[in-house]
Amino acid sequence: MKLWCLYTMCRWFCSSPCMCRARCDKTPTIDESTSCPQDMKMSKFSIGLRSQRPTLNICIAIRLIFDLRVKRGAMPRKDGMERADLLTANGGIFKPQGRAIAKNAKKNVKVLVVGNPANTNAFIAMSNAPEIDPKQFTAMTRLDHNRAVAQLAQRVGKPVTSIKKMTIWGNHSASQYPDLYNCEVDGKNAATVVNDETWARETFIPTVAKRGAAIIKARGLSSAASAGTAAMDHMRNWVQGTPAGDWVSMSVPSDGSYGVPA
């Protein structure tokens, strides 16, 4: 699954790319480091695996990443855990990674933090990379954004392409607020199209906010393909921009807008 997501991400950015894969682990995982490139070669992808280098040295791994950095690695969230429960363990992971980015990455690197709690982990990494512009650090709320779009599309019986201007306010957590009131369905206000405050308050918002916990409870693991797709969507729009008349959700350092302290 991870290789499929990596392959698809490459396809989003270039029609004929070659893939260079760098992997850094806290402890050796020899079986995976040898099986993954074998799996890719046997899959006969239209892009080639130009290089594959597993390492325990974070500085080496970051030197191998050129312009984009997706920081997925983190302690996984398990059934019964909230994202905040991961703070102690993952805080210790993202501090040295931030320092390594500052020392080894390009100064124009774009960093997406996926590991939970994503907003806090992004802040930790950013704070430990003062040489890098804070605007180049983001955390992923695109998974919540995509879930909200899908939930709304199902409710109104429209394709997801009919949904524009969805917004996820707040943290990537159970306290987030998916915004129907500035969203549109085929150019019409989404809240007006739905016309059901009770559904919006008691079904839509909690379903989006707690979907991650529901997936963990159902499969014993956090989101895989949907999270990978959200990361691809995030980076594609960050690099290539958004279509006219639409916007997307991502966690970024505050500049004081909307009354949020900078």
Output mean pLDDT: 76
Shape: globular
CATH class of the largest domain: Alpha Beta
- Tally of distinct domains: 2
Span between N and C termini? 38 Å
- Percentage beta strand: 5-15%
CATH architecture of the largest domain: 3-Layer(aba) Sandwich
What does this structure look like?
The protein has ten helices and ten strands. It has helices at 2-13, 30-43, 58-63, 87-104, 118-127, 142-156, 190-194, 197-209, 211-219, 225-240; strands at 18-24, 48-55, 68-71, 110-113, 137-139, 163-164, 167-169, 177-179, 184-185, 188-189. The strands form four sheets. A three-stranded parallel β-sheet has the order 3-4-5. Strands 6-9-10 form a three-stranded antiparallel β-sheet. It has a two-stranded parallel ribbon with strand order 1-2. Helix 5 links the parallel strand 4 (110-113) and strand 5 (137-139). Helix 1 (2-13) runs parallel beside helix 10 (225-240) and helix 6 (142-156) packs antiparallel against helix 8.
Briefly, what is this?
The chain is 45% helix and 15% strand. The chain is built from ten helices and ten strands. The strands form four sheets. It has a three-stranded parallel beta sheet with strand order 3-4-5. The chain has a three-stranded antiparallel beta sheet with strand order 6-9-10.
Write the layout of secondary structure elements.
Elements: H1 2-13, E1 18-24, H2 30-43, E2 48-55, H3 58-63, E3 68-71, H4 87-104, E4 110-113, H5 118-127, E5 137-139, H6 142-156, E6 163-164, E7 167-169, E8 177-179, E9 184-185, E10 188-189, H7 190-194, H8 197-209, H9 211-219, H10 225-240
Parallel strand pairs: 1-2, 3-4, 4-5
Antiparallel strand pairs: 6-9, 7-8, 9-10
